[in-house]
Design goal:
Strand order of the largest sheet: 1-2-3-7
Distance between the termini: 25 Å
Number of strands: 7
CATH architecture: 2-Layer Sandwich
Helix content: 25-40%
Number of helices: 4
Largest sheet: 4 strands, antiparallel
Shape: globular
Order of helices and strands: EEEHHHEEEHE
Radius of gyration: 15 Å
CATH class: Alpha Beta
CATH topology: NE0471 N-terminal domain-like
Oligomer: single chain
Number of domains: 1
Length: 110
Amino acid sequence: MSQITATPVHLAVDHPEPGRLTVFWDDGQECIYSLADLRKDCPCATCRDLRRELAQSDELSLMTNTSLDPSIEVSGLETVGRYAIQFTWADGHNTGIYTYEFLREHCTPG
C-alpha cells in the first residue's frame, strides 16, 4: 500500500458545480469528486457490509428508500486527525471516514 504524503489545504463542496467536492492539496494537485460516488463508496462498516451482502446474495433483498437513494447533500464536513475527512450527509449518515489516501487514489484531476 502506498503512503500518501499530501494533505488537503482547502475543501469546496458543490464546486465547481452542485454535487461535486473539490479538494485542493498542498502539493498543488486539485481533485474533483462526485458526491454521489463518495456516498456510494462510503467506507463505514455498515455500508461495506451492505454492499458485500448485496453482491453475494442470490435472494430477493428488501431495502429501505434511504438504502436505495441515500442523500448526497452534505450538511457538514470535518477533518479527522491529520489523515481523513468525515461527511455528515443530509440524511444524518456520518460514520464514513474518507482517508486522504483513499481520496488521492480516487482523484479526478480538476
